[in-house]
Amino acid sequence: MSFEAKKQAAMAELENSKIWRPNYEPPFLLFMWWLGKETRPPHYNSFTTNALGFGLNFGLFWCLVMGVYVWSSMGVSVSSAIINVLLVCPSVGLIMACYYSFSAKRNKLSRWEELPETHESTEQYS
Question: The whole model's pTM is what?
Fold first, then answer.
């Protein structure tokens, strides 16, 4: 099954769930799709993929913002900044991975590999 067909089936399943749309279509995912990348919605990723993805992406963004706007003006040492990053980024990754794992189970979503082969509404997310 092609990625697009699975994406259509996943989006239909998510639309029929009680999950709020921005939670299953976060801006980063929409940006990746806009770039043409075959990126799964986070509810269909493994716990590890979500933990690493959210932790690393948040870490990169958060470090840049904090380093430029906060830590430099406060005179925070490099070692303190590194400790902050090493504590915050894995925490964010684990929290987000737990959220998506719990949400997928609570809403009884299919696994990516188990998504149906066909779906009627293929126009909306192309």
Answer: 0.81
